[in-house]
Amino acid sequence: MGKGGDSSGGRANGSAATAPQESFFGDLKKGVRGVKQDLEVLKNIWFKSLKADVDHAARLEGFYSGQAAQYDKFREHFLWGRRPMLAATAARLRETGRKDLVWVDLGGGTGRNVEMMADYIDLKHFKKIYVVDLCGSLCRQAEEKVAAHKWRNVEVVEADACTFKPAVKADLVTFSYSLTMIPPFLSAVDNAIDMMADDAILGVADFFVSGKYDSPLRRMSWIRRFFWRATFDTDNIDIGPERRAYLEHRLQRVMEVNSQGSIPYVPYLRAPWYVWVGQKGKPGVDVDLENELHHEAPPRFPPTFLYTQSWEDPRPDMEVLKINSDDVVLTLTSGGCNALNLCLQGAREVVTVDCNPAQSALVEIKKAAIEHGSYEDAWKLFGEGKHEDIERLYERELAPWLSENSLKFWNSRLHYFRGGLYYQGGMGMVVWAMAVLCRIFFLTKTLDKFVHAPTLEEQRKVWLGCWAVRLFLHAPAFLKWILSSLCGILFLNRFVMWFGGGVPLKQLELIEKDGVHITEYVGRTFHSAAMNTHVRNDNYFYYNCLTGRFSKECCPSFLTQHGFQELKNGKIKNLTVANNFFVPELAKRKYSKVIMMDHADWLPVESCEELAQTLGKQVVKGGVVIWRSASYEPPYAKLVEKAGFKVKCISRADKVDCMDRVNMYASFWSATKL
Question: Residue 517, exposed/middle/buried by CB under 10 A (0-12, 13-18, 19+)?
Answer without folding.
Answer: middle
